[in-house]
Amino acid sequence: MNRDTFMTARFFILGARSWCVAIALPLLAFVAAVQPAVALDIRGAGATFPAPLYEAWGTQYERATGTHLTYTAVGSGAGLERIRAHQADFGASDMPMTQQELTRYGLLQFPTVIGGVVPVINIAGIEPGELQLTGAVLADIYLGKIRRWNDPAIQQLNPSIALPATHITVVHRAEVSGTSLLFTGFLSQSSARWHREIGASEMPRWPVGVAGNGNGGVASYVQRTRFTIGYVEYFYARDHHLSDVMLRNRSGQLVRAGRNAFRAAAAVGSWDPVHTMLQLPADPAGEHSWPITGATFVLLPARCDDPERARATLAFFDWALHAGAHTIDTADYVPVPPDVLAQLPPLWRSVTDATGKAVWP
Prior knowledge:
single chain, alpha/beta, ten-stranded mixed sheet, 15 helices
């Protein structure tokens, strides 16, 4: 190739390259403009009580918006620790904080759903909802006062069931737990001895029993071990195909756990705007009320360092409690009352950035 031919080819190549660049740059700009911004990965941690629902919401929300939710079910106590240490965008707890605690840690809380804690057993031949207990008898089992399934106190409540003369294996939570707080609150109200010696606590000094981590851990232990009794959030009883126990409520009625019984109990509750807390009394009044019903709460920093993350977290719960409301029923929870739901947006607008500006909406 002579010099003139070489220079002609070089100019042609350079010209073609310039033309490609001229076309490519606007094209790249257009692609960047139409591509959505990288979605945030919202991080939550805490109670196992609402974990199945939060996970279902997270899957649906990612399909709808592209925003991914990572929820770590580590228990209410660990959830409080993580949000206070700024290791999560929100904490989840079944143990509502007092206003003094919220102020001390710079947090805001609000309820998301209502559910029930149910005693569950593993005794061959006893079907779900067949065994009946009272709070007093249940307390005596967890105190170690009643040690065998055919104890007269249990047999008297279940005359038509041939109860085995076997030792009762008691299963309880290993960690700080809002589920334990709800359960021991019922025992404390039902038994003077339990109230005096143990009390209502998120991590009581259990007199007897073996421990499982989280609702799932307790459910799995009961599922694989015969002659056991434990307590779990209702979803876990259904998910592990466990036999739930009927309980006698404050009105003297034997009731079985389920959404209708949780809804009846929730109707007795009241919203405390000062503490941003849905108050549900232990063993609420009402013939159809389930005696161990409680709300679960979300905890957020009242003043955030990252407004975008705070806004994304609030957007998720706004979607979940409205567009995702149908999932609450399918997961065997009960929504918070409409009057409580209506008060959440004003509460969310109290979340501010470092300058004091509201991050929501």
